[in-house]
UniProtKB/TrEMBL annotation:
Biological process per Gene Ontology, one example term: DNA replication, removal of RNA primer
Similarity section: Belongs to the RNase H family.
InterPro entries: RNase_H, RNaseH-like_sf, RNaseH_domain, RNaseH_sf
PANTHER family linked to this entry: RIBONUCLEASE H1
UniProtKB keywords: Endonuclease, Hydrolase, Metal-binding, Nuclease
Protein species of origin: Dimargaris cristalligena
CDD domains, per the entry: RNase_HI_eukaryote_like
Record domain RNase H type-1: where: 1-115
Superkingdom as given in the UniProt entry: Eukaryota
Protein name, per record: ribonuclease H
Length: 115
């Protein structure tokens, strides 16, 4: 792309699927190959500002399962209905799911991409 080129990306999951994405490619390098790769990156990563959500699904889940969905203080795990559903959906998805922690003020061009 030339200096005035603008590229966009789309991730299509199905008709009226809320996961569908259509947006401008972030950053100064606006090329079709970069946009195609960025779309794949968007489909394979979950971006969130919530350390709580990431830790629920990546760190604490194994202990909660072993402890019968109880915390270290023997309390029922909060929000376990949602956590269990998300874990089930992730386990049925082909490939690895990457959780990417971003700051609340982050813009797409500020993201540190996982390698």
């Amino acid at each position: 792309g030339g200096s005035d080129a603008v590229a966009g990306i789309a991730v299509y999951w199905g008709l009226d699927d809320p996961r569908n994405v259509m947006e401008k490619l972030p950053g100064p390098h606006q090329t079709i190959p970069r946009a195609e790769l960025w779309a794949i990156l968007r489909a394979l990563n979950i971006y969130t500002t919530s350390q709580y959500a990431i830790r629920c699904l990546t760190e604490w889940i194994a202990t909660w399962r072993r402890n019968g969905w109880r915390t270290f203080s023997n309390q029922a795990v909060a929000h376990q209905d949602i956590i269990r559903t998300v874990v089930c959906l992730i386990s049925h998805r082909p490939g690895k799911v990457n959780f990417v922690s971003i700051s609340r003020d982050a813009l797409w061009h500020d993201l540190t991409l996982p390698i």
